[in-house]
Design goal:
The complex is a heterodimer of chains A (420) and B (331). With 420 residues, chain A is an alpha/beta fold. Helix content of chain A is 27%, strand content 23%. Chain B folds into two domains: 150 residues, Rossmann fold (3-Layer(aba) Sandwich), CATH 3.40.50.1370; 144 residues, Aspartate/ornithine carbamoyltransferase (Rossmann fold), CATH 3.40.50.1370. In chain B, strands 7-6-5-8-9 form a five-stranded parallel sheet, with helices on both faces. In chain B, strands 2-1-3-4 form a four-stranded parallel sheet. The chains are: A alpha/beta (420), B alpha/beta (331).
Chain lengths: 420, 331
Amino acid sequence: MQILIRQAHLIDPQGPFHGSSNDILVTDGIIEGIGNFPGIKADRVIEEEGICVSPGWMDVFAHFCDPGTEYKEDLESGQAAAAHGGFTAVMILPDTRPPLQSKAEIEYIRGKAAGGIVDIYPIGALSMGLEGNLLAEMYDMRKSGAIAFSNGLNPIQSSGILLKALQYVKAFDGVIIQVPEDRSVSRHGLMNEGVVSTRIGMPGKPAIAEELMIRRDLEITRYAGSRIHFTGVSTAGAVALIRQAKSEGIRVTASVTPYHLCLTDESLSGYDTRLKVNPPLRTGADVDALRAGLLDGTIDCMASHHIPQDADAKEVEFEFAREGMIGLETCFSLMHESLDRMDLEDQVSLLCQNPRKIFGLEPLHIREQEMANLTIFNPGRSWTFQKEDIRSRSSNTPFIGKSLKGKIIGVMNQGKSSLH
Amino acid sequence: MIPANARLFRIFCVPLVPGMPLSVKHLLGIRDLTRQDIDLIFQTADNFKEILKRPIKKVPTLRDTTIVNVFFENSTRTRISFELAERRLSADVINFTASASSVRKGETLIDTVNNILAMKVDMVVMRHSAVGAPHFLAGHIQAAIVNAGDGINEHPTQALLDAFSIRERLGKVEGKKVAIIGDIMHSRVALSGIYCLQKMGAEVMVAGPPTLIPKYIGEAFGIRVSYDLREALAWCDVANILRIQLERQNMPVFSSLREYSQAYGVTRAILESLGKEIVIMHPGPINRGVELNSDVADSGNSIILQQVENGVAIRMAVLYLLAGQREEPAD
């Protein structure tokens, strides 16, 4: 199988072909040549005005629901959705049933996903049963391939447990991922607390629920001398705290979801359960702060927070609806539209180089005679996101029918290709 | 085909403001209503109130209309008031309460209501513990919906009857100063009340303990906020005293009822010290001796029983006007 990408703009900072426009010839999953190949008759030719190619992208926080709730997503459908969204690597949540809390579950994931077009990196459960009480066997899980540790969608509330976990993972320079939320403050809230929640009669989650947790976790991280990653950061105050912590040398990194970059709590006035997410949609000022945080490097990377839910989990009263939306397939477009002040090269870093660096993976580059691990995309192309386009098993997204800018053409990895 | 409104009018002459239907198909909240809608409801209620004073109080207006009262939360007064309004309009009435239903068995709201609607029901009056439940239902069923209270969000007919009672007592709502006092955070009466009073041109203040007042309420509505009962009473023409909703407080918000009544209980002594007369309202049921003392509740300042009476007329008006909005099937 020979695939030829014609006249692609290569975005590969520190790579040998960065900034060039070249043909890329891939034969049986190996990059055979980068240059000009006018006479070649490949099996598949990709040619499009404005096409870009970068090393394959990585998502740091997606839920593939396998094992346990495979009717929402499984490893196969999750990989298909990721590939469709331009990702060749995904870190998946431990919030399965049972949780990814021991070597057995980590090896199940690694084994089942091996050789797929999308590399799966399981995030191990920090605590047994994700209950936040007893530390899980993180050392053993690490040896089996867990890339980081987290309590997933139920962030660690106890300062003592978090301290022990942060100290524990220092043995192997591990990273703890937290969705920052002090549940004792936010417990009864259903959306961001503010003018909008007050007007529509909804109990709110105040921004300080997130900021208190970040403040606390930063102090614990400083004390432990360990590494923490906040994902789903959503408030202006949170961005300011992380910026300050970085300047003080605390080993903190952060990621943001695509929907927090473009949606606000104003959109909840119709009680649309597709917009029920956690951390909740915040205000316009928060959106601006998140974008600024990406621009100045306070926030290091994107995180899809791809959380599939079946129709029954969403087609209920807002209070009873489950949280989350799918996000892998629209991640790039939403980010790209939200960051019109950022260079494309820097945008790609948010999806490619930065997450790999944070979680200790080798940098990827586009080189001849190496395995093609590529994302092919067209940042200038507008498209309409249709329900039929969704590869995820679930379709809980508010973006169906929306016109978006920035289209994924396809990915290649592990000798396989997924081209639209 | 004759428009439903005109047909109803012909069957039984409730005088209407000609050619002015409501701007909504459901009554989900006061938030969605215009000032004209509220005026129309009040004018219609005036007529029904007149009818309710006659020896024969029942009119055949909704004779071929079936209404189901779906109450997922306990309610005695609101349900009885709606039921009476429905029966006075000659509607067929079904009552459905959650405690005796399949909801406990895990049936979804859509399934529950669709099962009822399969039996050819025209209107749904619903109370539900979840904010936005009637809005959600409105997107899934054909029948007209009247929100009889959704969580801590809205209770529109209560706000309408409150404003209607103020208008009756003081001649108008516009320009009046109304203080809503008590548990603002957990009260659907407060939110609907603010919307309704503001749309009618009244000035609004909310007062109560800081733990029971939403942080952003002043900013959200441009209203005054006070933590001082005396200040609120001295400012207002009308004080709407809310029931302390013990059942909705899932967090400690004040130490004890005793302490609450010391700080926020309305007593005769406080009212007498104001040097002016104010109107006292309460949506009921009263916790006597907690938010309101008996010597106030039963005094000439109180219009609490008039509120109850007006509730029937307001609910008749709402049901009547929404029934008129429904499309009549072609003959």
